[in-house]
TrEMBL record:
Keyword annotations: 2Fe-2S, Cell membrane, Disulfide bond, Electron transport, Iron, Iron-sulfur, Membrane, Metal-binding, Oxidoreductase, Respiratory chain, Transmembrane, Transmembrane helix, Transport
One Pfam family this sequence matches: QcrA_N
Domain annotation Rieske: ranges: 270-364
Family of the protein in this entry: Belongs to the Rieske iron-sulfur protein family.
Topological relation to the membrane, as annotated: Multi-pass membrane protein
Transmembrane stretches, start-end: 58-81, 93-120, 173-193
Primary localization: membrane
PROSITE patterns: RIESKE
Protein's recorded name: Cytochrome bc1 complex Rieske iron-sulfur subunit
Taxonomic classification: Bacteria, Bacillati, Actinomycetota, Actinomycetes, Pseudonocardiales
UniProt GO cellular component terms: plasma membrane
Length: 382
């Protein structure tokens, strides 16, 4: 607020302190060259049925915001969010609704809160019409008189909005905003609610992938995806030409007749592995990583497909240079040097899966990766 054109006599500090808010309001207007054209009270007669109806309408929107916020919070925690294959009709139906339910409940909550606020300002805040001449106050800061009159304006606006005596609206707005706030705090934390150390050696823990045997001695085969989710096509060493690459997934005999498990193995995000058969000349140049000297089977090397930068699929293998390329940010990994990064933003090698050939002639994983795949997380050691 400016101190106006200076033609108005300035009150002393004592006079200012003795003024009522109403007087300060008028004084502020005069000093600023403000002319209030219209300042109607939206409810000149207090306590009418119409006023109460308007109050209840506003409270209703805040209540809807609170209910939708609570529904969002409940869905975030309790809705079945884990993947269910389409074969499991009931489970898949509820799983597929998870994201839409979160979107709808959060959207309704925000929308209802916004409508409540808009409705309140439309029905209860006086629509003041004032005209003011602007001035830059000659570059000087606000004087005491400006500060006092400005505060008086704010206080007057607060009082005229009648929010102070509308406890129904205050409570419902607090409830709506509070529940919505709770949901927005819970959203980023929800991923951490599951205990990541529970069953730390199981294939479903954060520390392992689907390549982890479910029990000691379980054989986990390398399986290709033929396009038919239920088909089991295992990989023999002679299936790949020198210089070829194939994407493989884990398969265990216990899942042969379990359609859901077969689908899940192909869809689980940390399962895909690039099986690369190096050309003999290239294989002779391989530099193995310490501790992983026996992870390959002859010319066959298996690396996770999940990029160590931010987790895109590194699906491109360039036979001439033996480079594995990630299309997301152009990281390149050297397949002859335990897939260590040689270009781009990735800083860690792709995790290598130890493989061998089973007595039945099919390629199998000797055990799970010895380090977490993909971007680093808190337990990564390399
Ligand atoms: S995710 Fe692979 S380079 Fe960024």
């Amino acid at each position: 607020m400016s101190s106006g054109n200076g033609s108005e006599p300035r009150p002393t500090d004592e006079e200012l302190s003795a003024m009522s808010r109403e007087e300060l309001l008028r004084l502020g207007g005069k000093l600023d060259g403000v002319e209030i054209v219209n300042y109607p009270d939206p409810w000149p007669v207090k306590g009418t049925k119409a006023e109460k109806r308007a109050e209840r309408a506003v409270a209703l929107w805040f209540l809807i915001a609170a209910l939708a916020g609570a529904a969002f919070f409940a869905a975030l925690i309790w809705w079945p969010w884990q993947f269910e294959p389409p074969g499991n009709q009931d489970g898949y139906f509820w799983y597929s609704l998870y994201t839409p339910v979160l979107g709808v409940t959060l959207g309704v909550s925000v929308l209802a809160l916004a409508i409540g606020v808009l409705l309140y300002s439309k029905r209860f805040i006086p629509a003041e019409l004032a005209v003011q001449q602007r001035t830059d106050n000659m570059g000087e800061g606000s004087a005491e008189v400006d500060r006092k009159t400005f505060v008086a304006h704010l206080a007057d606006a607060g009082e005229r909005s009648t929010i102070g005596r509308r406890s129904l609206i205050k409570r419902s707005a607090g409830l709506g905003a509070g529940v919505l706030g709770l949901g927005t705090v819970a959203l980023p934390l929800a991923g951490f609610i599951e205990n990541p150390w529970k069953d730390a050696n199981g294939k479903d823990s954060l520390a392992h992938t689907g390549w982890q045997p479910a029990f000691p001695g379980e054989v986990v085969y390398l399986r290709r995806h033929t396009g038919d989710f239920g088909e089991v096509s295992l990989v023999r060493p002679e299936d790949l030409d020198a210089g070829a690459m194939e994407t493989v997934y884990p398969f265990r005999e216990s899942e042969r007749d379990d359609h859901d498990a077969l689908v899940h193995a192909l869809k689980r995000s940390d399962n895909p592995v690039m099986l690369i058969r190096l050309r003999p000349d290239d294989a002779a140049k391989v530099v193995k990583r310490k501790g992983q000297e026996d992870f390959n089977y002859g010319d066959y090397y298996a690396y996770t497909k999940i990029c160590s930068h931010v987790g895109c699929p590194t699906s491109l293998y360039e036979q001439q240079t033996n480079r594995i390329l990630c299309p997301c940010h152009q990281s390149q990994f050297d397949a002859l040097q335990y897939a260590k990064p040689v270009f781009g933003p990735a800083t860690r090698a792709l995790a290598q899966l130890p493989i061998t050939v089973h007595s039945d002639g099919y390629l199998i994983a000797r055990h799970d990766f010895i380090e977490p795949i993909g971007p680093g997380f808190w337990e990564r050691k390399s």
